[in-house]
User: Fold this.
Amino acid sequence: MKKMLFALPLVALVAACGSGGSGADATSQIKIVGSSTVYPFTTAVAEQFQRANPGTSVIVESTGTGSGMKLFCGGVGEQHPDIVNASRRMKKSEYDMCAAAGVNQVIEIPVGIDGLTMIAAQGTDALDLTVEDIYAALAKNPYGKDQAAQNWSDIRPDLPNQKIRVLGPPPTSGTRDSFAELILEAGCKSNADMKALKDSDEDAFKATCHTIREDGAYVEAGENDNLLVQKVAADPGTLGVLGYSFLEENADKVQPVSIGGVTPNEETISNLSYPGARMLYIYVKGEHVAAKPAIKDFLSAYSAAWGKGGMLANRGLVPMGDADMATSAKTASELTPLDGSVLK
Assistant:
């Protein structure tokens, strides 16, 4: 049955390949788009894979999760990506967009755990914020009221009397989605009226809890996380929002901001005690695997790299628990399509 499912789109894929170069060239190239957070991990696997398989080219592009999903779900054929990196789970609307374009075999593979971290310039005073502090400082209309806070001390008297300035990802980024869901929403729901609003009007709840202020206190810093690190390091008092691996790699330039008394590190992220802990994913287009057998080999290489003490752990990816790791490796091997009904 699986062979039949793969075979039908293969005709379209090979036909599309013919218009973009020779079939041999097309089928020896793997195209990957998506999350800037997952980008360095996938790039590391791609570089190692290409050294071991010089006849295969792996192209990895950092587009942000949202933009990557749009490209991935654009259709079947050589002009469309084979894989998308994602720093949050695929949305039901994206799955439906894929299906409408003929992408019916979406394979979801968790690759590890990341901590959505807030950072400050190295050497500045240690800062511990709660999710309520962060929401109150960055929401456009905190708890449904006008935003009036200018300094962190306006949020809580014992916080620094410094201007609120946070550099973070744009709306196209999965990190932005995770920030809204894991941090802002958690702070918002601490309010009884907001909890009641969630039950009565989900859209109004999301508008109040997820919408970030646009008066300069929050600055969209693009998809280049290394550049964000540089800007925060050069501007004491400014905070940043990005994935844990970038914090770990730049510990000489920036330091973590604790959230709720918990500092992000491998232990607090892996046991999910850190509020910003989140799963990272890659999504594979099953229709392309028959035309590009190298994709399955690439997934095997990825599975071998994400374990404890593996190449990706050494680059800042926090390994999954043994059971989750085994399930993910099985999905990567058997190429089991995702059931879209489990998505939100």
User: Anything to note?
Assistant: The mean pLDDT is 92. DSSP finds 16 helices and ten strands in the chain. The chain has two domains: 2-113+280-342, 115-277. The two ends are 28 Å apart (CA to CA).
